[in-house]
Amino acid sequence: MLTDDERSRQGRRSIAALAVRSVAVATFITVSALVSSAGANRSAAKPFKPVAEPHNTRRALSPSYTDFSGTWKLTSTEGDMDAMLQFLNVGGGGWPGWSLRQALAAVNYGVGLERRIINMTRDHVDTEVIVGGILHEAVSNDIDGKLHTISAAGMTVTAWAEWINGTLVSHQVAPVQFLARQFLLPDGRMRTESTSSSFAVAVVYTRDE
C-alpha cells in the first residue's frame, strides 16, 4: 500500500510527465519544453521579447554550427503558453484539453523539474527529456534542410531543420506550422523562441553540469 506522501509524489511525477510529452511536439529539435510558469497566471506572464541571437558564442564551432551538447535545466520562459498549447491542440478540445492545460500550469510546465541531455554533431541531434530522474522522451533528428517525419510525444511530426549563422532553425509543417530558433545567449544559457500566427513563446535552459 502506498502512503499518502508516496501517492502525492507519484501524482506530481505523472503531471510532470504530461507536461514533458505535451510540449515535446512544440519544439521539434530540442523539443524544447516550451513551458512557462506564466500559464498558471496569464496576467503575470512575462511578455515575449525576441532576442537577436549572437553569431559567435563561446561554444560555436564554426559560423554556421553551435554545439548544444550537455545537460540542461529548464529555468525560465516568456509568452502566452496557454495560447501555444491551444494552437497545438494539446489534449484536444473541450474539457479534456482544458483540464490538461490546467494540469500543466499547476506544475509550471516543468520549470525547475525538467532536464534535457543533448548529444549532437553538426548534422544530427539526440535529445533525452528527464523529469524527476526518469526518462520520459527520447528524440533523434537530422539537421540537413530536408523534410523528415518523426515521432514525438506520441504524435507524428513533419519538419525540417537547418543552421543559419549558428542558430538552429526548425520548421514544423505538420500537423501545424510554426518556427523555432535555438541559440546560446552570451552568458551561455540556451534559448529557444517559437512563433506562429497564433503565439510567440520562449524558453531558457541553464547548464546543469
UniProtKB/TrEMBL annotation:
The chain crosses the membrane at residues 15-35. It comes from the Eukaryota. Keywords: Membrane, Transmembrane, Transmembrane helix. This is Lipocalin-like domain-containing protein. It comes from Emiliania huxleyi (strain CCMP1516). The lineage of its organism: Eukaryota, Haptista, Haptophyta, Prymnesiophyceae, Isochrysidales.
